[in-house]
Every structure is written in C-alpha cells, then in structure tokens.
Amino acid sequence: MFGIGLPELLVIMIVALIVLGPKRLPEVAQALGKALAELRKATSGITDELRNAQIMLEHEVRSANRPPVPPLNTAPPAPPPNTAPTGSTPPDTQPAAAKDNGSPTNS
C-alpha cells in the first residue's frame, strides 16, 4: 500500500489505541473510513470525466485525419463537353470515297 508492512501497521494501531483510548478508537476509525470512502468516490468521478474527455479528443483527432467522404446523394461529375455533334465524325477522318470535292469521278 504505502510501503507499510504488518509490523509497522501493528505499531501504528498500538500507538493509536494508547493515544485515543479504547472508547474513542472505534469512532475515529469509523470517521476515517467514511472520509476515505468519500475521497474515493470523488476521485473516481474525476477519473471518469477525464477518461471521457480523452476518448472524445481521440475521436475528434481520428475524424479530422480521415479523408472526407463524398455525400451519397450526389450525381457523378458530368463528362467534358463534346464539340462535334453526336453520330458524325470530323471532316479529317471521313473516308476518301465519302469526300465530295465537286468533281465527277471516273469509274
């Protein structure tokens, strides 16, 4: 406990019995026991509050270090706008037979 062994405890009890007397010793022991119980109760309450505060701080640190999660109800990003109309190819990529240069073809 506080480095007090059985011999030291016996000496303390004998001195207390001599100083306080057999009539007052039980009253003092009872008051001392109540005071220790109140002290333990107060320290356990403080310990619980500190533990709860530590858990909350750890939770906040974890959530701050976590990458942001996109909301579930958003649409995916739109593709970039296409300059060519749908279904047609640009003039450079049309086959040679399809090009019309205005001259008749000799077949």
User: How much of the polypeptide forms β-strand, as a percent range?
Assistant: under 5%
Count of helical segments? 1
Gap from first CA to last CA: 114 Å
Radius of gyration: 45 Å
Low-confidence stretches: none
Number of strands: 0
Describe the overall structure.
By secondary structure, this protein is an all-alpha fold. It is built from one helix and no strands. The mean pLDDT is 78.
In short:
The chain is built from one helix and no strands. It has 107 residues and is mainly α.
Considering the chains and any ligands shown, give keywords for the structure:
1 helix, 0% strand, mainly alpha, rod-shaped
Annotate the secondary structure layout:
Blueprint: H1 6-65
